[in-house]
Amino acid sequence: MAFHILIIGGGIGGLSAAIALRRAGVSVAVYERAAQFGEAGAGVTMTPPGLRAMDALGLGEEVIALSDNVARTAFYQWDTGEFIKTSEPAPGATIMDQVRVLHRTDLHKLLLERAVAAGAQVHTGHALADFAQDAQGVSARFANGQTARGDALIGADGLRSLVRGALLGLEAPRRTGIVAFRALLPRVLVADLMEDYESKVDVGANANFVRYTVRHGQVLNCVGLARSDMGGEENWSTPATRAEFKAHFAGWNAHVYALIDRIPEHMLFKWPLFDRDPIAEWRVGRVALLGDAAHPMLPFLGIGATMAQEDAVVLGASMAGAPSVEQGLAAYVAARQPRAAEVTHASRAQGEWIMGKGVADAFRQELKRNPVMDYDVRR
Questions:
Q1: How many CB atoms lie within 10 A of CB 114?
Q2: Mean pLDDT score of the chain, rounded to an integer?
Q3: pLDDT of 330-364, one tens digit each?
Q4: pLDDT tens for each residue of 242-262
Q5: I need a surface site. Which of 50, 136, 259, 263 has the fewest CB within 10 A?
Q6: How many domains does the structure of the chain reveal?
Q7: 150: DSSP letter
Q8: Residue 156 maps to which CATH number?
């Protein structure tokens, strides 16, 4: 049976889902609230499960070409700048076992191009106003006055998903008490401060400072995470100042301060981190959730985008040949919910460990590969 599915949200999850569904022979229309696609976010980590998911979508080689391998990460003491240790690739690791990094805009552009090439309809300037489902399908109404009709609807509309709110009721996400400062700047601005590393992390009590290059060494991505009572909503584009960035890293080593001082202030942003507790059901009838709309999580495993990509692969496989959209969506949620719950808890646990008071000493003892990284959605 041929289905037509509406996807709300044209981010990484929504576009990955569009590609997966088209590969399964499903007709797809994506509706994005932004008037146009542009520069989106900063660096994004592609974990091994994410690479495997992209490979399942036929994009593995292209993602590898766009990204940079982080074979080793060097860890340093937060206050003294003392070297602690370096992570090393596991013996016998293949290219699909790598951790790779790339610019989020580059990944999004690739997904958009491939979704359109696969035959997905992609509409910008369509902010969802409401939707309703009946025995025959789902109708969506948008703020611009347009309407759409499909056999099912996927909410891939992020942490504050309107689709989730309509399905499950309004529930505030959990404020974690952690703030992220981020900057993406030309490497040339800090070339004399760069050392011979692919990725570097300064670890300390209640904070960590990460940096790595993307676009094949041309652009430096910096992220500082610190415990904070800062208010506000999740918004990647909230401007920050050097003064408040440094205030959250008071007492840190001179190299961190020097790097922060080089960041042009118009390139510096902040946002508080949120997540949600896992839920047992992401579907009501012909409507289901995907990505952050279903399972927003903390960034300590670098696996948030990966989870949306995995969702997309499983959604496509579940809808291929499904006797009804309800059965296809039910199979998708049943397959994905346990994995999402496991990774949500693992991300929280990793955050508590890496933000702990004794984390620098813990790093000296051992670096364990988290078992959630062994997952392969292709199997």
A1: 19
A2: 92
A3: 999 999 999 999 999 999 998 888 887 777 777 77
A4: 999 999 999 999 999 999 999
A5: 136
A6: 1
A7: E
A8: 3.50.50.60
